[in-house]
Amino acid sequence: MVNKLNIKAYSSEIERYKGSVTANWQAGAADLVTIGANDDGKLVDSLLVDISALTATATISIRLYQQVNGTEKCILDDDYIVGTDPQAIPVINSPLGIYEAFRVEVQSDNALDNGLAIGYEYTLEEK
Asked: What distance, in Å, lies between the first and last C-alpha atoms of the chain?
């Protein structure tokens, strides 16, 4: 049985953000989005990255960075293949607590991806 009161309280605090970034993804890794701010606790409930506009068969690296003891560290580095993997990658699909700015970086191995847009969407909730 689902407790509707908890769902209402939970969902009323969630904010949805979305956008896209155009960059030279193959020329070097580029920032897709920074989530949150330093010294501001949040929960990232989901993060989707849309790789569907990129070149078929390109390998796309998605990296997540978070501060650990005051120094930014890579906490996830996964590769996806356009046309083989899903078009929208669920990079985060369960709540992740952040207390500092959280950075998402993307890189492609195909020069044809330079100048293309990558979309993203995430949900954020106050801690």
From this structure: 26
Considering only residues 88 and 13, tell me which one the structure prediction assigns the higher pLDDT. Answer: 88
Amino acid at 42: K
The C-alpha atoms of residue 24 and residue 17 are separated, in whole angstroms, by: 23
Question: How far are the Cα atoms of 30, 32, 96, 98 from residue 81, in angstroms, in the given order?
Answer: 18, 18, 25, 28
pLDDT tens for each residue of 46-56: 999 999 999 99
Integer Cα distance of 54 and 50 in angstroms: 9
Give pTM, 2 decimals: 0.87
Beta-carbon contacts of residue 25 (< 8 Å; ≥ 6 apart)? 54, 60, 106, 107, 108, 113, 114, 116, 118
Q: Is 1 helix (H, G, I), strand (E, B) or coil?
A: coil
